[in-house]
Amino acid sequence: MASEKTWTVLALLEWTRQFFKNKNIESPRLEAELLLAHVLGWERIHLYTKFDYVLPADKLAAFKEMIVQRADHTPTQYILGTCEFYSLEFRVTPAVLIPRPETEHLVEALISRAKGQTAARVLELGTGSGCIVVAAAKALPLAEFVAVDLSADALAIAAENAAKHGVDSRIRFIHGDFFDPLAGQSFDYVVSNPPYIGEDEWRGLAPEVRDHEPRTALVGGQDGLDAYRRIIPAAPAHLQPGGRLLLELPAAKARLVRQIAEKTPLVEEETIPDYAKIERVLVLAMPQKDSAAE
After folding, report:
1. Which of 25, 40, 210, 282 would you call most buried, defined as having the most Cβ atoms within 10 angstroms of its Cβ?
2. Domain spanning 96-285 has what CATH number?
3. Each residue's pLDDT tens digit, 27-73
4. Cα torsion at 71, 72, 73, 77 (round to 10°)?
5. Residue 227: which of 118, 150, 163, 140 has the closest Cα?
6. What's the chain's average pLDDT?
7. Given CA atoms 96, 108, 270, 243 in this order, what sign does their dihedral have?
8. Per-residue model confidence (pLDDT) at position 293
C-alpha cells in the first residue's frame, strides 16, 4: 500500500478486498468493510455514503495495522475485540473461544425450559467469554447462575461481559475444572459447550481457528469426546430430580455422545437440530425420585 497515495474509503476498500482475496481470506470485501468501519467509528452503511472520504494519517496507520493482522489470519473478532452473540455484544480476546451462531440453539433450549421458573439454579461448565451464561441471565431474571472455567484469563473476560450487560450480581464465577470445585452442590440446569474437536480434526482446521483460538477450548482428546466422558457421568450427582443437562453436540458425533449417556441415569429428552439440520443440542433429563420404588 503506497503511503503517498490519497486513500479514499472506496480506494481502500477495493485495495483491501483484492489483498485479502490474494491471502485466501474468506469474504474479503466484508472483512475490509468491518475493519474500516471500526477504525472510523462508523456504521458499515456509512461507508457507502462517504466513498470519497479521505482517511487522515492516524486512521490510515491504524487500518494498515489491522490489515496486517487479518492477512496473518488473526480472526476479525480478536482484532476488533468484540463479537455479537444472541443480539448482545461481547468482549473477546485470544483467551476465549469466539462465540458461534450455532451455540445460540443451546441458549434457546435453556431459556425455553427455565423461563418463568422461580429461583432456578443454573450451572455453566467451561464458560469462556461468558456468552452463554450472560445471554441466559439477561433472559431469565429470576434465575441464579454459577459459571466455571479452568482459565483465569477467560473468567476475567466473562466477568467483564457480565458486568457490561448488568447481570454480574446473579452470576458467580468459579475457577476450576468442570465439577471439581462444586462438591455437594446441585442445580436445576447444567449447560455446556465443551471442547469437541479431535486431534486429527484440529490439524485440519482453518488457520484462523487452529493458530489463534485457545486450543484447550477446542480439542477434546483424540476423538474429541473426552469432556463428554467426564461431564455426563458426573452430572447426576449435581442435578436436582427432574433437572436437565444441556450439551452442544459435535457434528456427526451425536450418536457417540448418546452412548455415553446411556450408561448413566440420565434420559434423553430431546435432540435439537440447527438450521442446517445438524444435531446440535442434546437435552438429558434427571428422573424424578421414584416414590413407588420403596
Report:
1. 282
2. 3.40.50.150
3. 999 999 999 999 999 999 999 999 999 999 999 999 999 999 999 99
4. -80
5. 150
6. 95
7. positive
8. 43
Side-chain half-sphere of 26: how many Cα atoms within 13 Å?
6
What amino acid occupies position 26? E
Angstrom distances, CA of residue 164 to CA of 28, 91, 157, 169: 31, 9, 10, 11
Residue 285 one-letter amino acid: A
- Rounded distance, CA 120 to CA 90, Å? 24
Residue 258, C-alpha cell as written in the block: 448418546
Position of cell 475485540?
Answer: 81
How far is it, in rounded angstroms, from Cα 217 to Cα 240? 27
Domain residue ranges of the chain, discontinuous segments joined by +: 9-72, 96-285
CB 172 within 8 A of CB 210: no
157 grid coordinates: 473476560
Beta bridge partners of 246: 191, 283
Residue identified by cell 474429541 is 224
User: For residues 137 and 169, what is the distance between their CA atoms, to the nearest angstrom?
Assistant: 10
Regions in the chain scoring below 70 on pLDDT: 1-4, 290-294
Count the neighbouring beta carbons within 10 Å of the beta carbon of residue 285: 18
> Cα separation of 148 and 126, whole Å?
6
